[in-house]
Amino acid sequence: MVHFPLALVTCAALLLPAARVWRHERQAAILATVGTWNLCLGAAAALPALATGLAAVIGLQVGAAARQAISLHVKWALFTTLALLLLAVWRGAGTAQDSRPSRLFLTVLLAATAALVVTGYRGGQNVYRYGIGVQAPSLAVPDATAPAPAR
User: Across all residues in the chain, what is the average pLDDT?
Assistant: First the structure.
């Protein structure tokens, strides 16, 4: 779920600045259109990613350090999702999708993309440092020397 907004918004953050500086008008319009669609789809994909993340923490029993890490990740996720949705509305409904983006828009887009990267990093830390969302291995380990049961 979380990889769709990461990939789509990152692509938008590459395509839209390219559309601003590209010399050929037709190719710049294509870059801008594809970047706009990537941004809008990435912002839309951030909603179910946020929803599944919030649903995952309901009733989660973890230690104080892990709880603090989750809280920080949730704050980043809420901020980033809101920023992406506002950017998508700004770009998707505020201007023609094939127009070159403004410097102000690109600055805000790059800041929101950086926030998305931080959010993803914090989520990764929750998994790999604190083991959040990782199923514990079964305590019953089969004996490798025992014969397999007959079928």
Answer: 90
